[in-house]
Amino acid sequence: MAIPKAELHLHIEGTLEPELAFELAERNGIELPFDSVEELRRAYSFTDLQSFLDLYYALMSVLRTEQDFADLAAAYLERAAAQGVRHAEIFFDPQAHTSRGVAIGTVVTGLARALEDAERSLGISSRLILCFLRDRPAEEAMETLESARPHLHAITGVGLDSAEIGNPPEKFREVFAAARAAGLRRVAHAGEEGPADYVRQALDVLGAERIDHGVRCLEDPELVERLRREAVPLTVCPFSNVRLRVVERLEEHPLPKLIGAGLVVTVNSDDPAYFGGYVEDNLDGVRRALDLDPETVRELARNSFRAAFLDEERRAELIAEVDAYRFPAE
Ligand code: HPA
Ligand SMILES: [Zn+2]
């Protein structure tokens, strides 16, 4: 059994495996520009964030109905459960769907149905986090928040994703303030490809409670000290960083530096269908590549629950599960 953990950095659209993409394409009468699952997998040779995003958005064309979104989330949650995930906070990108004529209600209702089913059948608790696309205008983000209002009972927070460079957090000051006023939690991608200053802006301007990725904070020692002092969690995604060339090799990943700096580090999969593994694969990958000892891995798992938007009773319960966990070799 894999170590119990929460997954806090997971784009549901990034869990679309080639097999399901072809199945949904057929169901919806959509022609994919690939002849086979194998040919599609071969297209996953990214050179940076933008080259990944181009394929990521293109493949979403197969997602059309409420059932499509429910099937996508159900497939993820089943895999996640098999990898020891006990709680998942799941990003979705409404603008990538509404821009194709799919209503936001179709997206949220389909996802929420699968999440409720998985809570019952798999014992996984979960949350939905609505992400704004930062390479789209700020006004469109505000319209997206407005259109989400009838569905806020199913949404815990907002996030910020897509192409980072040239799209600083301050562009989204107003929409994050409006989200906060609506009682939503706040996270933001920052310091993946973008500079350390974007991490600072995410905290100061957006009121971000967690930083997604954040690895480039290491370029600014004062910022690292602040993240430590304020115990701001980082949702780090090792396989993603290697595949998008933020980091050259897993063996050179700065995870040990982040841990050594006293930060609340978590390990996550980001877009597992595209980056070569789900969350336990990431955790086991860094454990081997960086020679992490069992107690360090347990601490990463505890951090995932500390950083989650959980009630205190369930948080304590899940951390106790980690405390009791022993690796096969121990
Ligand atoms: O890793 C990511 N970074 C930015 N945007 C994204 N959208 C999906 N995955 C990512
Ligand atoms: Zn991400």
TrEMBL record:
Q: Where does substrate bind?
A: 271
Q: Where is this site: Important for catalytic activity?
A: 213
What is one GO cellular-component annotation here? cytosol
Positions of the catalytic residues: 192
Keyword match Protein biosynthesis: no
Q: What is its EC number?
A: 3.5.4.2
Top-level EC class: hydrolase
Q: Which UniProt keywords apply?
A: Hydrolase, Metal-binding, Nucleotide metabolism, Zinc
Its cofactor is: Zn(2+)
Gene Ontology BP terms? adenine catabolic process; hypoxanthine salvage; nucleotide metabolic process
Coiled coil ranges: none
Comment on bound cofactor: Binds 1 zinc ion per subunit.
What is catalyzed by this enzyme?
Answer: adenine + H2O + H(+) = hypoxanthine + NH4(+)
Q: Where is the Adenosine deaminase domain?
A: 4-324
Q: Which residues bind Zn(2+)?
A: 9, 11, 189, 270
GO molecular function, a single term? zinc ion binding
InterPro entries this protein is in? A_deaminase_dom, ADE, Ado/ade_deaminase, Metal_Hydrolase
Q: Pfam families under this entry?
A: A_deaminase
What family does the entry list? Answer: Belongs to the metallo-dependent hydrolases superfamily. Adenosine and AMP deaminases family. Adenine deaminase type 2 subfamily.
**Chain's role:** Catalyzes the hydrolytic deamination of adenine to hypoxanthine. Plays an important role in the purine salvage pathway and in nitrogen catabolism.
Protein's UniProt name: Adenine deaminase
* Source organism of this protein record: Marinactinospora thermotolerans DSM 45154
